[in-house]
Design brief:
By secondary structure, the protein is of the alpha/beta class. It folds into four domains: about 10-25 and about 185-330, Molybdenum Cofactor Biosythetic Enzyme, Chain A (3-Layer(aba) Sandwich); about 30-50 and about 150-185, Molybdopterin biosynthesis moea protein, domain 2, CATH 3.90.105; about 55-145, Molybdopterin biosynthesis moeA protein, domain 3; about 340-410, Beta Barrel (Beta-clip), CATH 2.40.340. About 20% of the residues lie in helices and about 30% in strands. The protein has seven helices and 26 strands. The strands form seven sheets. It has a six-stranded mixed beta sheet, with no helix packed on it. A hairpin with a 4-residue loop joins strand 23 and strand 24. Helix 1 (about 10-20) packs parallel to helix 6 and helix 3 (about 215-225) packs parallel to helix 6. Bound molecules: adenosine monophosphate and magnesium ion.
């Protein structure tokens, strides 16, 4: 008897998944290890930037008022009384018609009201002293970066939930976060199932294929910032699969299987879920590919029964595993970003399920257009190489015409 599985809409399936997710505990890591992780604390400026008034140019600290009458015909000369590089501080106060040679980033000496850029000045030696000639008025405040002009003290630079990339690394370092609170990375166990599967280094033999899904899934897991743990290939042997899944659930909080998800003679995922007394969120979704995706929880643990068909496995992961893992990772952005795109060609194939077509979107100078890539079949994986979006095609008997606007989900690549 073929068991009846009731399909639910994609959005409903995503909602069910999101309603049960929770964040991982927090850990503190050295700044060097924080890149790519998600902030578990707000990043706060504990001092203003700049923290002191500083020169934005190599040049001379001057009093702008001394240059008010300067012109090409009547240049004025200032006496250079000190010389400071970045990191140094002058103990002099600028007097009338005095200048201090200053480098970018150095704290401006007291009395300074402007920086004269090196390019606009001319220096000369006379009677053992150095002088600088100015032939135009310099505006007050020229090239001075004021304390706090970039960031005020107490400002929140990034809120928790933000993924740490180059900009956040810079700010964490600026404010002395030698240790950073981040969410612990989930470890995601992966099994490939199927007696037809060969390891990558095996030569092809009749009826067999290489296990590609587990490598694809590991890449997807890693791209989110989680840690994949590949457990190998399982043959279509119910007892063995059940035992391995049960044992592995002791070790990891998230476990994925690919294959055995359908209603064929050796598709054991449903039986395993039942035997484990799993709480099944859904086991069929009205979408193509990936309609036979099953997501369940066993206590605190998550079990994803992804399709064996490569494209279906990929899409099932992006739609349903992504929000779960992203939440665990502490991230605020749970789903792939969406936008509209204009169809570059007709889409004939009507379907009663929503289709997620592997497609390529590009900007043609006035709008974002999208075209499908490769064969739109769930078993076809090669299209994933060129695809940068999933084109969402709602059910429609007539299909769609070139020029119509549809939603796309932008793949993380
Ligand atoms: P299944 O869900 O087990 O019925 O598998 C559906 C299709 O996906 C079959 O054609 C399988 O051979 C193929 N398949 C299953 N697992 C993998 C895998 N790990 N890598 C590549 N193809 C697979
Ligand atoms: Mg199989």
């Amino acid at each position: 008897m073929v068991e009846q599985r009731i399909p639910i809409p994609v959005e409903e399936a995503i909602t069910r998944v999101k309603n049960r997710t929770k964040r991982n505990p927090i850990e503190s890591v050295p700044l060097e290890m924080a890149d790519g992780r998600v902030l578990a604390e707000d990043l706060i400026a504990d001092h203003p930037i700049p923290s002191f008034d500083r020169s934005a140019f190599d040049g001379f600290a001057i009093r702008a008022e001394d240059t008010a009458q300067a012109s090409f015909e009547n240049p004025i000369t200032l006496k250079v009384v000190d010389d400071i590089g970045a990191g140094a501080v002058s103990d002099k106060t600028l007097g009338e018609k005095e200048a201090i040679r200053i480098m970018t980033g150095a704290q401006i000496p007291s009395g300074t009201t402007a920086i004269l850029a090196l390019e606009l000045s001319e220096t000369f030696e006379n009677t053992g002293e150095t002088w600088v000639r100015v032939n135009r008025p310099v505006a007050r405040n020229s090239h001075i970066s004021r304390q706090g002009e970039d960031t005020d003290q107490g400002e929140i630079i990034a809120r928790k939930g933000r993924r740490i990339t180059a900009g956040e690394m810079s700010m964490l370092a600026t404010f002395g976060y030698a240790q950073v609170n981040v969410y612990r990375q989930p470890v995601v166990g992966i099994y490939a199932t199927g007696t037809e599967l060969l390891p990558v280094d095996a030569p092809l033999t009749p009826g067999k294929i290489r296990n590609s899904n587990s490598y694809m899934l590991q890449s997807q897991v890693r791209a989110l910032g989680a840690i994949p743990k590949y457990y190998g290939i399982l043959p279509d042997d119910y007892d063995l699969c059940l035992q391995k899944v049960r044992d592995t659930l002791e070790e990891v909080d998230f476990l994925m299987t690919t294959g055995g998800a359908s209603v064929g003679d050796f598709d054991y995922v449903q039986d395993i879920m039942r035997e484990l007394d799993a709480h099944v969120l859904f086991n069929k979704v009205s979408m193509r590919p990936g309609s036979v995706t099953t997501v369940s929880t066993v206590g605190d643990k998550w079990l994803f029964g992804l399709s064996g068909n490569p494209a279906a496995c990929y899409v099932g992961f992006e739609l349903f595993a992504r929000p779960v893992l992203k939440t665990a990772l502490g991230s605020e952005e749970l789903e792939l970003p969406r936008s509209k795109a204009v169809l570059a060609h007709d889409l004939k194939k009507p379907n009663r399920f929503t289709r997620f077509v592997r497609a390529k979107a590009s900007y043609n100078g006035s709008q974002v257009t999208v075209q499908s890539v490769g064969l739109d079949k769930s078993g076809v994986a090669s299209a994933l190489v060129e695809a940068n979006v999933l084109l969402i095609v709602p059910p429609n008997q007539e299909g769609y015409k070139a020029g119509e606007e549809l939603d796309v989900m932008w793949l993380d690549r």
